[in-house]
Write a structure and sequence with these properties.
Helix 3 packs across helix 7 (220-231). The chain is α/β, with parallel strands linked by helices. The chain has helices at 40-51, 66-78, 94-109, 127-142, 185-194, 208-218, 220-231, 244-247, 255-260, 281-285, 346-355; strands at residues 6-12, 56-62, 82-88, 114-119, 123-124, 146-151, 162-170, 173-180, 197-207, 240-241, 266-271, 275-276, 296-298, 301-304, 310-313, 318-321, 326-330, 335-339, 366-369, 372-380, 383-390, 398-400, 404-412, 415-419, 422-426, 431-434, 440-443, 450-458, 467-470. The radius of gyration is 25 Å and the shape is globular. The chain is built from eleven helices and 29 strands. The strands form seven sheets. Strands 19-20-21-28-23-26 form a six-stranded antiparallel beta sheet, with no helix packed on it. A five-stranded mixed barrel has the order 6-9-7-8-11. A hairpin with a 4-residue loop joins strand 17 (326-330) and strand 18 (335-339).
Length: 477
């Protein structure tokens, strides 16, 4: 393979707790739909594929997000884009993930392959300028440098790390003098005024061989753990699922701490494109144009004498009267109200909800599965009502429940149902009853979505009352 093969790598794993209640553990920040309808992940995938036409884009994500990710990529694949996956059994920060990518790509394309690492939750406003920066970074990477992308600071931000640049290597490419931790306000102001500092974007470019050598020198414990993981993993299987017993031994450490702050040969490309990591609701609000009073609205809102507010609502009308500088985010099962200048503190809400094991930390009312989705419409003592959507050709697992019975009514499409010893076709306006303990499965044999209403009754209607006997998606339980 040509030594200057460019392989984009998408890191998709951040929980995005500052963007609760839209971002949740089961549907995190990269999957949030932006104004215009595309997710951060889809925008990143488009950007990655455009940088290396004909090359596979490698995505590293948790195995729980694989089917969601494939759904996001579906249209791009139909357009000819190719995707490869490394699936993590648990999160271990960016150093083990990037080490796995370098080893995986080095094995397939050689040590000289250039790796472009892109977090899935960044928004970049100028694709042409981004591609120009990637070309400069790839050239420096080919010369043996570990390259990072530095974003020109637009304000004295205290929430980002900074990079101090040294002597020039080429057009917009300079030696990295040092990495700086998140500064206080005074230091941030000095950095911005000096012109020598840029924000550390978290995007990187290097050859697979250069990163592996740097890991061997500066993070041998990470390299050993990841090499052992890949040795115990079937790397020819797609998607490639990293071996859990070995991967969980990898240190939980970022690539900055493990390698970039210690490496000898580092460069920074000064990025000339608009960039945001969408780190809070304030950043997301900036994507919506304000009205004359400075209010920004996504969804349905009625504002009377309100100023500089951000309102987002999925379904309900939000009315605000005589308020200023508020952040209001309304979802089907959770409502966030905060001062806009305290948007970073939303993560404290998530921390408190975790202490009480509240389900809104993990799930929305609509939960996505490999076969489609379900929405909880109503729930109470001894019952739960769901709207279930099964995609064409998809099927639920062959399963049974100990504590609940289920009534299925087909609303649209066609359902092929296994119900104990019987197999039957259930059409719109028809139903079937599945008693507790009966082995059952629903398959959609048609070419449109099958929509059903499910009424569960019983002593316990929790989601964990399920025994999967057979599952085409590899799930257990």
């Amino acid at each position: 393979m040509h030594p200057m093969t460019l392989v984009p790598v998408i890191l998709s794993g951040g929980a995005g707790t500052r963007l609760w209640p839209v971002s949740r553990e089961a549907l995190p920040k990269p999957f949030i739909k932006l104004p215009g309808g595309e997710s951060l992940l889809l925008k990143t995938a488009k950007r990655a594929a455009a940088c290396a036409p004909g090359s596979e884009v490698l995505t590293i994500t948790n195995r729980e997000y694989y089917f969601l990710t494939r759904d996001e990529y579906e249209a791009l694949e139909k357009g000819g884009a190719q995707f490869d996956f490394l699936l993590e059994p648990l999160g271990r920060n960016t150093a083990p993930a990037i080490c796995a990518a370098a080893l995986h790509i080095g094995r397939r394309h050689g040590a000289g392959a250039v790796v472009l690492v892109l977090p899935a939750d960044h928004l970049i406003g100028d694709d042409a300028a981004f591609q120009a920066a990637v070309k400069k970074a790839a050239k420096a990477a080919g010369e043996g440098y570990l390259v990072t992308f530095g974003v020109a600071p637009t304000r004295p931000e205290t929430g980002f790390g900074y990079i101090e640049a040294g002597e020039a290597l080429g057009d917009d490419v300079r030696i990295v003098k040092r990495f700086v931790e998140k500064p206080d306000a005074a230091a941030a102001a000095r950095y911005v005024a000096s012109g020598s500092y840029s924000w550390n974007s978290g995007m990187f470019c290097f050859t697979a061989g250069a990163m592996i050598d740097a890991m061997r020198r500066h993070a041998p414990d990470v390299l050993r753990a990841v090499e052992a993981t890949l040795a115990a993993t079937d790397c020819d299987k797609k998607p490639t699922i990293l071996a859990k017993a070995e991967f969980e031994k990898a240190p939980d450490i970022s690539i900055d701490y493990a390698v970039m702050e210690k490496a000898e040969k580092r460069a920074v490309v000064r990025a000339a494109f608009p960039w945001s990591d969408i780190g809070s609701w304030s950043a997301l609000a900036d994507l919506t144009a304000p009205d004359a009073a400075g209010n920004r609205v996504n969804g349905k809102a009625v504002l009377v004498d309100a100023e500089r507010c951000f309102i987002q609502s999925d379904d309900r009308v939000v009315a605000a009267v005589g308020v200023e500088d508020l952040l209001v985010v309304d979802t089907s099962d959770a409502l966030l109200i905060a001062r806009r200048d305290r948007a970073q503190e939303v993560k404290k809400v998530v921390e408190r909800l975790k202490l009480s094991s509240h389900d809104s930390v993990r799930h929305h009312r609509t939960v996505y599965r490999p076969w489609g989705s379900f929405t909880v419409l109503e729930e109470g003592p001894r019952f739960k009502i769901k709207r279930i959507v099964v995609k064409p050709g998809a099927s639920l697992s062959l399963q049974m429940h100990h504590h609940r019975s289920e009534h299925w009514v087909v609303i649209s499409g066609m359902a092929k149902v296994v119900n104990a010893e019987r197999e039957l076709m259930v059409r719109p306006d028809e139903s079937t009853y599945i008693r507790a303990g009966a082995v059952h499965r629903l398959t959609n044999p048609g070419n449109i979505d099958c929509v059903i209403i499910e009424v569960q009754t019983g002593d316990y209607v929790g989601e964990d009352d399920i025994v999967r006997l057979e599952d085409k998606y590899g799930r257990q339980g």
